[in-house]
Amino acid sequence: MTGAAALGVAGLLDPRQSMADATKLQTVKSPLSTTGLTPTSYKDITSYNNFYEFGVEKDNPAQNAGKMRTRPWKVTIDGLVKQKKTVSIEELLSFKPIEERVYRHRCVEAWSMVIPWAGYSLSELINWAEPLPKAKYVQFLTLEDASVMPGLREINLNWPYSEGLRMDEAMHPLTLLTFGLYGEVLPNQDGAPVRIVIPWKYGFKSAKSIVKIHFTADQPSTAWNDMAPREYGFYSNVNPNVDHPRWSQKSERRIGAPIFSQRQPTLMFNGYGDQVASLYNGMDLKKYF
Ligand code: MTE
User: Is there an atom of ligand 1 within 6 Å of 204 CB?
Assistant: First the structure.
């Protein structure tokens, strides 16, 4: 990864610490941060999770994900790219300055949080990866390791967990290649060592513990859409006007907020409409939900 070494000198991690035991990330403030919202507590963000490889209950990932080994870790970049590449997590971490971005996080199950993520725009990596003009979509494939993931046997999803974006969505500056939260490396239950975060989409689009980024000409198959296409669309933009077939999407429960302010109206595109609505000009968002 050319430039990685030079950028690494910027010292994204304390050089006295080895990668294996470093937990702090040096971050810079980002203009793309959501301002004015109180972040959800670290405890809630790291103990109320969806990571089905480790079980279906919200506390299962925190209980079980500790066994996942996140070093060494490599990410393969393949499909419609000039040249297939494999990069280590160390190279990814030192490739660009890590920004702190406080984003709203809205799950399709109608709960939400506010999370100070740490990462850089996925577009930086995609530009480096040099996808071919034929590449119209990006697919994210995540770790599948039955020796540490009891959910692979217990839960009927097409493993490995897969998610995908249209290329213009993947290139949008808000789409964050994410390595940390609250200035620390991601805890395993939150998708260590690298996940994706797309703040205007339901949380299930944000694939955790990514091992492959695959460029394709056709819309890739994605875990929840394969399992229940009527309930989980490929786009999954946060939209209070399109209900889930089994529940309303008009409001959400802010985890950890005082009881009287827990129920909040859900915002179109999760409040990021000014930045992203133009990606969907002319599209019927009820059809392409
Ligand atoms: N990624 C993987 N690999 N496996 C999963 O089960 N769950 C998704 C998404 N990414 C999931 C995943 C869902 S449904 C949500 S809402 C978010 O992760 C939850 O992220 P959080 O636990 O950090 O809040």
Answer: yes
